[in-house]
Amino acid sequence: MPNYDEAILRSRRLNPNAPFPILHQAVRIALYDEYAARAFYGKVVEAFGPHQPFANIVRAEQRHVDALSRQCERLGIPRPLDPFPLETEIEPTWRANCERAVAGEIANVRLYRYLLPHIGDPQVGNVMLNLQAASLNNHLPAFQEAAAEAMAQERYHAERGIPPQQAYEHHGPLADLVEKALVHLSPHAGPIGLFSPLLRRTTPSMLLGLAAGGAGIYFYRNRLGRKKQEN
């Protein structure tokens, strides 16, 4: 069953000719938009696991929904029905979802910029200003950073013939940490000098093997040194 103002909600645009007050429309539009973000981020977490920034921001979106829902209750505005859990689809790769999240947060900031001049209720205005600030100052930078990291990770794997869909496979906490370090090092390997060709060709498993071997040699030599000192 669609919402009685479905066209207004879908368009995210106020309609002065509609039989509903502008404040009524604005609060429902904002809540509807937060529903959409909550569903999208939740679906990404379901598909890719509780990784940041989606895992934290989906909880923040729930808080946004709660804040606007309280304004609906205070003003006697019916909350819109939420169709997004059933109709939301996500992108096939982590990077594409990060980029979509960036676009969504930008659109959310613009939506509040559009709605705020029409808000005559101070409490609703403060809530929307706070939600806009959260999107602009917290959510958007987090997704921009995630998108940039995803692009670097895909580039790193593409140089090794690994397709984007496999660029985010997990190999264990230590191997994943090493891989992340290599991803960040690879664009800046030139200044490292003689080691840059090696770094560009090194895989996380290779580096872990080198690290383990180096640690073994270190402890072996350290043990021999202690024995010589004791003798």
UniProtKB/TrEMBL annotation:
Membrane-spanning ranges: 203-220
UniProt KW keywords: Membrane, Transmembrane, Transmembrane helix
InterPro entries linked: DUF2202 (IPR019243), Ferritin-like (IPR012347), Ferritin-like_SF (IPR009078)
Top-level taxon in the UniProt lineage: Bacteria
CDD domains from the UniProt entry: Ferritin_like_AB2 (cd01048)
Protein name from the UniProt record: Ferritin
Organism of derivation: Methylomonas rivi
Lineage: Bacteria, Pseudomonadati, Pseudomonadota, Gammaproteobacteria, Methylococcales
